[in-house]
# Entry
Amino acid sequence: MHNININSVLSVFILGAISLAFIYHVVMYMYSKDKLIIHYLLYIFFSAVFAFSMTGFIAAYFTEAAENKFINIFYEAIQILYLAFYFNFILQSIEIENRKTPFLYRSWVAIMAVLIGYSIIFTIAKIIFNFKDYTIPFIGIRIFIFILTSIMLYKSYHLRTLTFQFYILLGCSVYFIFGITSFITNLYDGTDMFIYPPEWLIIGSFIDIVFFSIAINYRNKKQWQTLNHTLLQDANEMIAMQKIILEKQLALENERNRISQDMHDDLGSGLTKIAILSEVVKKQFENPEKAKPQLEKIADTSRELVDSLQDIIWILNTKNDTLESLSAYIREYGLKYFEPLNIKINFDYPNLFSITTLTEEQRRNTYLTIKEIFNNIAKHAQCNTVYVNMCEQENEIIIQINDNGIGFDINHTRQFANGLKNMKTRIEIVGGKFIIQSKINEGTQIIIIFKK
# Structure
């Protein structure tokens, strides 16, 4: 068993801490695949090698001569590589490769090349020439590092965008201060120092590791919060999507039921009427005069069935979902409906409607309401002219229907109550307004307003 002579207890302690940090961050990288941790591991690795060279373990496990030779040849290169990867880590923490800062990026590449090149050339020169005094390159390279590091730290502070980066840069700043302290104390000869120059560097490394651990934990916490928030948003979006799908399925089911009801009410009742009238005609077949009115009723009912079927088909056809299509269909129906009644109908439409899409429910309820209005005019108004005006105002569609008939007292509408109530309900279902104004002998005005 070797007798271990420890040169620096502090170095051994910090080597242990750095080794544990290295293992911890290797595991963390395997879990997170965070590229920044790779750069940090390189920095920790050379920190550990630097601390190891100061512990006396090489002399303990080999010989003191072997340790002296190792330090004589490799100590300077290890320390510079240690500082180089520290410098690299600073810039990687602010995502230098993704920044639009050519100066920093070019400087990073050039400085890394200089420092790594210096380490290689210095080591080769040491092996070949074995020189003892290298004060000038020692001081020169460190002044170079400290000046550029101070510039980089200053710029990095201004480029930071995350609290995580602030913690890292704070740790780097502390390490930078300890590095300057190490450099200054190294200029003084003495063997009675409480903390030797290299120990200042490894103390700085230890503190930097603490800050980096805080930064990583902070970022992991934020990432988990972001992940949880994203998962919650995704879940809410999925629930909302499922709700929309269910609403569409429900709307489709309601539409199927409505079509079934319409066909039952209109077509079913019409066909039943035709069947009954046909039976009556059969019995009156020997008396053509009595059969003729029944045949006319059959013909009228058949035409009504055809019209109802056309209405259903028009409402279901998605090609008719524009305001222009609705207005054209109302015009066609109005002209055809009032022509046999000797009632003139005038339409006042804009030259061009905007491209406004209407829902099937809007088209259906509006059309059926206007159809009912025309029917009421024909039955009760005793007019000779009907005026239909349709226009757009901002986000509203306004349909105004006037007749020059006998009008009625709107306070006494018992005979029209159900019909008016149904029309108003239809329009309100699509978020519209149904307004009726009438005076005896002054005609009637109905206004329908709904949102686009």
Summary: The mean pLDDT is 81.
